Structures are given as structure tokens and as C-alpha cells.
Amino acid sequence: MKQPILYGAVITLLLIGGISSSGLLAARDIDASVMLKTAQSLFASGKSNEAIKSINGILKENPKNFEAYKLLGKIFASQNEYEKAEKSFQTAASLDATDGDLFYQLGLLYVKKGNAQGAIRSFILTVKNDPKNYEAYHNLGNIALATGNPKQALEYYNKVMAINPSHQPTIKNMSQISRILQEAQKQKQNPVAK
User: φ and ψ at 67, to 5 degrees?
Assistant: First the structure.
């Protein structure tokens, strides 16, 4: 409801010569920024449907708002609306293919969907754009471990340790890999007689 009042005031000032056309665009950007912060707050407080309405208002004014699509994807993912989330994240990626967090969120979505290859691609894009994102390396390690490749998992976990040496989930998984590799080594040295 505040949007028409803000635009009305801006247009009035424009008409009487108080704001240039670039000032009008800046006012629109400020309004979108306020609406986006409102949507983030609504989502954080569990009011996802209201947040979606706010985001739709932003996208009506600016259908190329990267942050709006990214937040929309997060909201849909939290509601287990995986197809809508993926579509929102993909639209955001088409607007900015350099945002590491976007690809991290998309990777998490693919993990939820059981799409290991999509998750791997997304987490690799995450670390390409944000090399310090140790959670993406951790998830790459988890996927490698789950698919029976403990050596590759260890490579990813070592990257986590280089960034965050106290990351407990990685420390736990590295310990598990150590046991797996030790057991495999024992079996090679002492094969069971048939």
C-alpha cells in the first residue's frame, strides 16, 4: 500500500522539477530494496506466503531483480516446492552467474531432490565463485563418500580443513574415511581364505 504513495510523491516532485529521471529510478530501487528487506524479514519470521507476495510485487516492477529470485528460490525450497525453487534459482543464475551463495543454495536443493550430479555441478560453481565456501567442499566430500569414493572425499575434506580446521562434521567424516581406508588396507594384506 505504501508503494503508490511513494511513487505519487516522487512523480509530484519530478513534475515540479525537484527530481531528475535518474532520481526516479533511484527511488524505485530504494523501494525495491525496502520491499526485499521486508520479504526477508517475513520469511525469517515464518511468514513465507506474505514474503512471496512481497517478492512478486518487486518482480512486477523489476522482472530482472536477482536478489528477489534468489530469495524466492530459498522460500520455495523451504516449502519443499522443489520445481518452483529450481526455476527461481535458475532465473537468478541467468541474471548473475557469479554469486557463490546462489549456487550453494541450488546445490542444497539438488541434494534434497536426490540429484547428485546437479549438486556436484552447483557446488563446483559455488567454490569457483566463492573459494572460501568450505560448506560446499564439505558437501562435495559427502557426495563422494556416499558414492563410494573415499579418496576423492578426502581431497574435498582436506580443502575444508585448509579453510576451517575446526569444522567438526568434516573432522568426523575424515575419521570415518581413515577407518574405511585402514580396513581396506588390512583386507589387502590379509585376504580371507575361501
Answer: -60, -35
